Amino acid sequence: MRILILGGGIGGLCTAIALRKQGFEVDVLEQSSDLHSSVHGVGIIQPMNALRALEVIGCVEECLAVGYSTQAWGKMLDADGNVIRQIPGARIPGSDLPPMNGITRPKLHEILTEKTLAAGAAIHYGTTIRQIRQDSSGVEVVPVPATRYGRDEPSRDRGGLVDGEIDGSSEHYDIVVGADGTYSMVRDYVKGPGVEPTYNGQASFRVNVPRQIPGQMEIDGIILQYTPRGMAGFVPLGPDLAYMFFGKEWDRSVRPAPDELADVLRAALEGYGGLTAAVRDNYLTDSRAIVFRPLDWLIAPPPWHRGRVVLIGDAAHAFLPHLGQGAAQAIEDGIVLAECLATYDDLEAAFGRYVDRRYERCRLVIQACVDISLWERGELEDFDNVAVTQQIIETLVQPI
Ligand SMILES: Cc1cc2nc3c(=O)[nH]c(=O)nc-3n(C[C@H](O)[C@H](O)[C@H](O)COP(=O)(O)OP(=O)(O)OC[C@H]3O[C@@H](n4cnc5c(N)ncnc54)[C@H](O)[C@@H]3O)c2cc1C
Questions:
Q1: CATH number of the domain encompassing residue 62
Q2: Residue 114 CB coordination number (10 Å)
Q3: How many domains does the chain have?
Q4: Does the C-beta of 179 come closer than 6 Å to ligand 1?
Q5: CA 132 to centroid of ligand 1, rounded, Å
Q6: Which of 18, 329, 338, 352 is 20 to 30 Å from the Cα of 77, by its Cα?
Q7: Ligand 1 atom closest to residue 185's alpha carbon, by position in its atom list
Q8: Helices 48-56 and 326-343, interaxial angle, to 10°?
């Protein structure tokens, strides 16, 4: 079968590798002009289940080699910087994989891109589709040059996908995979209007910092530091590098000017001691180094396909970052989808089995992330975020 993947993010690239391993022919269309322009320079948490999935598609060794593997998930500090809880995390049973690896997004994208090309898939940058038509024999699409939008902005506008009309030079595929992220236009085509992301009332700031900050504890796992003003966190990314995230309640209509981000973040971190205070006072000078993003979540109700067009990754389920699981689940999607397509001749059966294996797992984690974000904003009393995190981790190490 010839398969088109729309979107060359983490999910799209991993799905391409998984499909190639099952012998399918794969083209990836990515709206960004090259591999680096679609990703921010900050880091990403690769939990144990992401590492297991990356092992299946032959990418884990490279990630572990350039990232920072931890011995435990991490710990939680009070506002002054004292350790108050340990979060042990878990390992995949019967495996040597660590509980977590931190890696920069550009390095991860380089690894996945190289593996995608080596697996024999083609990646076409600066390209999208505008028209689509499908029948029992396949899907016709018209590839067109993409207009470049911001990395975290909706791409769907702008007309979205025109259904049923083909007036350009078209390409024929057996299946189209929508891997076009949270603001997916393929989702509109599959699910119709109305399946929209929900804003959770928080925004995230991210910035790279040294892994060892003078006079502070070493960042050797995920370190969370909570106050009612927001949740600060630290993730090791390499021997010398880590990144800090800060999630806080935020009015979505307010978009800080790019050159004000350092001032806004420093002010938001008032009242913290310890590690967060050390970063606030010494490392937040360059606004251009800070990535700001309001946080949306979504889980599309099944089915995740319409005829021969199917959704994976954030296009089907956009996670809040609170458990570091969005990309992990996108990678798992790709592997399960490829397995189902290789197992069933009938596409309805393959897509049905795919969503059966994926929906409940994603729903569970998304609900936990929403609960943690509510607790952070003081809306869930007697909620134990550490216990919930550990419980979800122990669920996710089980086979899919
Ligand atoms: C603040 C924050 C922190 C996070 N931290 C973590 C973490 O630590 N660990 C983790 O596992 N996950 C994390 N995530 C989630 C993770 O980044 C996403 O779940 C993951 O990137 C989803 O991958 P994807 O390929 O489905 O979508 P995306 O990464 O959004 O990729 C979609 C791709 O499709 C392209 N595209 C979009 N529209 C079109 C179009 N019309 N035509 C062609 N191409 C198109 C885009 O340019 C993009 O390259 C975090 C998310 C946020 C917001």
A1: 3.50.50.60
A2: 14
A3: 2
A4: yes
A5: 23
A6: 329
A7: 41
A8: 40
Q: How far apart are CA 248 and CA 260, in angstroms?
A: 17
Which atom of ligand 1 is least distant from the CA of 204?
Answer: 1
Structure tokens at 233: 């966190």
Tell me how crowded residue 286 is: count the other CB atoms within 10 A of its CB: 11
The sign of the torsion formed by the CA atoms of 103, 104, 109, 111 equals: negative
Q: CA 326 to CA 320: how far, in whole Å?
A: 7
Nearest CA to ligand 1 atom 48: 9
pLDDT in tens, 289-333: 999 999 999 999 999 999 999 999 999 999 999 999 999 999 999
Q: Are residues 210 and 327 in the same domain?
A: no
Nearest Cα neighbor of 200 from 376, 329, 44, 365 is 376
CATH of the domain at 268: 3.30.9.30
Confirm or reject: Cβ of 45 under 6 Å from ligand 1.
Answer: yes
Nearest CA, atom 26, ligand 1: 313
Indicate the pTM of the whole model.
0.97
The verdict on 370 and 304 lying in the same domain is: yes
Range of the domain at 245: 199-295
Category of 191 on φ-ψ map: left (φ > 0), alpha (ψ -120 to 50) or beta: alpha
323 in a domain, yes or no? yes
With tokens 């700031």, the residue in question is 205
Q: Of 10, 16, 4, 18, which is closest to residue 400 (Cα–Cα)?
A: 18
SS3 322: helix
Q: For residue 155, which atom of ligand 1 is closest to its CA?
A: 38
Nearest Cα neighbor of 231 from 326, 101, 322 is 322
The reply to whether 56 falls in a domain is yes
Residue range 333-389, pLDDT digits in tens: 999 999 999 999 999 999 999 999 999 999 999 999 999 999 999 999 899 999 999
Shared-domain flag, residues 62 and 129 = yes
Within this chain, do residues 141 and 48 fall inside the same structural domain, yes or no? yes
List the structure tokens of 42. 């900050």
